[in-house]
Amino acid sequence: MLDSCKLKSACNLPFICNKKINTAGTSNAEVPLADPGMYQLDITLRRGQSLAARDRGGTSDPYVKFKIGGKEVFRSKIIHKNLNPVWEEKACILVDHLREPLYIKVFDYDFGLQDDFMGSAFLDLTQLELNRPTDVTLTLKDPHYPDHDLGIILLSVILTPKEGESRDVTMLMRKSWKRSSKFQTQSLRLSDLHRKSHLWRGIVSITLIEGRDLKAMDSNGLSDPYVKFRLGHQKYKSKIMPKTLNPQWREQFDFHLYEERGGIIDITAWDKDAGKRDDFIGRCQVDLSALSREQTHKLELQLEEGEGHLVLLVTLTASATVSISDLSVNSLEDQKEREEILKRYSPLRIFHNLKDVGFLQVKVIRAEGLMAADVTGKSDPFCVVELNNDRLLTHTVYKNLNPEWNKVFTFNIKDIHSVLEVTVYDEDRDRSADFLGKVAIPLLSIQNGEQKAYVLKNKQLTGPTKGVIYLEIDVIFNAVKASLRTLIPKEQKYIEEENRLSKQLLLRNFIRMKRCVMVLVNAAYYVNSCFDWDSPPRSLAAFVLFLFVVWNFELYMIPLVLLLLLTWNYFLIISGKDNRQRDTVVEDMLEDEEEEDDKDDKDSEKKGFINKIYAIQEVCVSVQNILDEVASFGERIKNTFNWTVPFLSWLAIVALCVFTVILYCIPLRYIVLVWGINKFTKKLRSPYAIDNNELLDFLSRVPSDVQVVQYQELKPDPSHSPYKRKKNNLG
């Protein structure tokens, strides 16, 4: 396997070698004896001249693909509206032999449509002199129209033999990549993952409105329909609507649009059946190439292989700010770019694109002391950075437990309450990638511009694993936009494997719900003890308070009391009498669950109570999820008043102040009248609006006790400090 340090020094192109290295050479013919077995081809894509116009305005948006043996090994950036583009991009490519020429193809990028072909050319690698830089001018041709003048492409190339290097580097195109946990298993080929890491060119927003006259699949003449969407590797699943042939979903899903995708969204409708396989209702497709962008399209689609229609709203919009770059290319360190970003999210631009809440920049610098996943005592680590459904990844650093990636990732923030997930994997030959560690960082907990060492955690994020990762993160956002977005439904993640039944998880959720219920029970006992005069001073005080409140009660006092409770807890915190306690019960349950999962992995032959539960798994999983939802609801309310997330608690204070003033100044009948008029006319004013409950949407952003434990930052071991280690080495 090629050592990364050796490769970097050979290429002398740290950014491109890290990001663009590909392998090629698919011929099965035997390599001649004179062939050293591996070559390194360094290419600089200079510019294009007099390229063909493919757009109506007489220009093109050209980009270039390099292929060897039918496989794409490099793709350039897009130069918009230019027939004489300047790229100055470098690529470092490894080839098995020189018989396959380098195939250069130029395309005109079209958003949401099939890209237009602008010409192609071949570079015969056998004609290149070894170890000598060569300037190459290639004339572009179209095989169907050989007489057309399509312009030229200018390259600089140098070919060097890599004698004695292992052919194992070709495994990069054959690897599979797998993220597995007890509740989610996902397997992808590494080539698919590389395609995932390509930056998307736009967003496809789909609103599933309703179904009409669907096919009855149950004996009662009805169905329990739900819908699945698929665009490439992206998948979503709607909620289940019980006992209806005319379901009203009102759900929204966002897909990334990649230029290599066919632009076809596959849609299937299913009937949910408990305890047996779901029934197929019908299918349909949406061809995105037929839809204009920046416009909402209402589609009524007939279900094939079934009955009925689905009603959708589909909108294609331009891509958000998402990029990968080398550490030397840093948006926020460029003063002009930084000012543009700050201006973009300034308080003066509150109502400009409400979905664009903020800007996130993540510097993935390095990791230290990683777990050795290979038999050689080394690992081949790469890093995956995720924000909601946005996923990007670094290159792989081979045979290294202290890798340096030095990559900068930028994301567009749609919800300031999102959690940044950074996961480190070991790339393995002919096997699934091994999990090395993970951190989850809420955006609101980030301290801008600070390079920090984050202790890597296990898959469940409940305890430490070996190694630390060094990150530097910056978040810029508009607080008003972020507050408004808090009151709408959260973005759903790509469809995942459904949770399987776990005895420990079921027990944990039951205990969590029991603790929430016990709070109410204890409150009821406390009130009843006042009536029983168990403590005369307390009962007397309660009696006086009761008379005073009832005699003077006004509706505005309800939000006022909640406001006072939030304020009281705030002053307790700033005075040092913090009543927030680390939930050791939940943490212990999470650790027990992890141990139980490990035990299940090692000993799959154990039988008993859990096997009996699997017989009614569907029902038990539903109970398990309901317990989790109920417990999380109670914990979120508690954590709002405990100032677990200060931004949300301040937002609650503002809302309660507004409600208190409204209830104090405006008679109740007028408030109810406005509320009723809004409810009755909502469907008339906006027939396809998605129903939501602002209070529940707000609470969905507050972390539960389980999430508080998972997002908790662990203290790094001082021995991991690079400065201390250097000092020790000098000593």
TrEMBL record:
Q: Which domain of life is it from?
A: Eukaryota
User: Which coarse location class applies to the principal site listed for this UniProt protein?
Assistant: membrane
- Membrane spanning stretches: 540-573, 647-675
Cellular-component GO terms for this entry: endoplasmic reticulum membrane; recycling endosome; synaptic vesicle membrane
For activity, the cofactor(s) needed are: Ca(2+)
SUPFAM superfamilies given for it? Answer: C2 domain (Calcium/lipid-binding domain, CaLB)
Q: Where in this chain does the record put each C2 domain?
A: 20-138, 184-301, 335-456
Gene Ontology biological process terms in this record: regulation of neurotransmitter secretion
Give the molecular function GO annotations. Answer: calcium ion binding
Annotated membrane topology is:
Multi-pass membrane protein
Places the protein is found: Cytoplasmic vesicle, Secretory vesicle, Synaptic vesicle membrane; Endoplasmic reticulum membrane; Recycling endosome
The record's comment on protein family reads: Belongs to the MCTP family.
Q: What is this protein called?
A: Multiple C2 and transmembrane domain-containing protein 1
Organism from which the protein derives = Macaca fascicularis (Crab-eating macaque)
